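Batch manifest line 473
LIGAND: manganese (II) ion
JOB: complex structure
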Amino acid sequence: MSEKGSDLEDKLAFSPKSIWEDIDEEKKEEVFNFAEDYSKFLSSSKTERRSVEESEKILRKNGFKAISEYEELTSGDKVYIINRNKSLAAAIIGDEDITKGCNIIASHIDAPRLDLKARPLYEDKEASVALLKTHYYGGIKKYHWVSTPLAIHGRVVKEDGTPVDISIGDDPSDPVFVISDLLPHLAKKKQAKRKTMKVIEGEELNILIAGIPLKDEEVENKVKVKVLKLLNDEYDIDEEDLTSAELEIVPAGESRDVGLDRSMVGGYAHDDRVCAYTSLRAVTDLDSTEKTSLVIFFDKEEIGSEGNTGANSDFLNSIYCKLLEKYKGEYTLQDQRNMLDNSKAISGDVCPAINPSFKSVHDIQNASSLGKGLVVTKFTGAGGKFSANDAHAEYVALIRRVFNENDIPWQTSELGKVDEGGGGTVAKFLANLNIDIIDIGIPLLGMHSPFEVISKADLYYMFKGYRSFLETE
Ligand code: MN
Ligand code: MN
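JOB STATUS: finished
ARTIFACT:
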């Protein structure tokens, strides 16, 4: 007896389809509600510090306590560790011995943005305004950042160590800031001949901050000094205090539903707070797990995972030591080694969705699209897989099994065509510790732009998929 062509195709071919086809009204409400919660988180987590603060609130609401609050750790305990207000780890201690390893989901909470320079403030006499100089962070297209409302969030630390948090531009009653572009009427010579990535250059990313001069004949830079006075009155800081500050310029405003059918969420820094949030929801949704569940948010991924809050640091080892100390009291280096060797991880990060207007950069058969589920990216890197984490076939099989057994829709993807470009994630740094790890995230349109877009269906199933992974024995 011969099988019909379409039956054979169903049986043998792998062709991910739109999740929406299988979502009924009841499920759709669940999917949309999840997206609404996420959207609020995204709107109030504009920096890595703010992401840590918002995450800590969610953790505490769900019974997680700081590690310092525990005398000892035992199975079922919910604990978190914060590193310098910029990276965070949250764990549920498993039923199985902790040295049998953790199920880890690692993501990053830093995002491309403009940082202020150490001496940012200046007055332009001819233009009669005061401005702030910036230094961009991460891979941006600089022209995205002009002529759009901007907010400032961050921390100034005074000489005596007092922190002063500043947050202006996201409350509807706040003023916003802007970098003015050149008008088209006068752009024909100066700007039109520049190459795309230089349409706006680094030193042109200057933020308009004030225009009223101080009424004092003695003062030379009247607008600048007026700004300093405003800052001093409001925050009790002076110009030198700005040298020990981390003030980040980010797009102003909230995340929004996108599309007539509201099927998508648009906002700043889905990359990679979407993976952070869904992994956070996954770990807080669980009461106990066989293996220790560990969710980590790293900082500095966008600049190569450098520094002591980035993934290329000993932060994970430090987490393991802290957990072991409270779990076992005395522990050996071999215990720590076993815990690493036995751990399995997902690197949660976003992946480019097929851009309908720029399809030529993708190998369509090996690209992801919105609404078709989690993206499994076996390897990252550039060219001939340089700088890649390339997950082992055995590990990819395990991941497939977890998702298929739990009805999690998934697709595969490469970053783009083989020789088109490239990039990496935190995956390779955990792989260096002898942990099996693979990139699993969701497709995204407009990556690294001020308004990135994801599908609500992918978002929901990423939460479900991450939860299933943490429960894996
Ligand atoms: Mn990125
Ligand atoms: Mn990322």
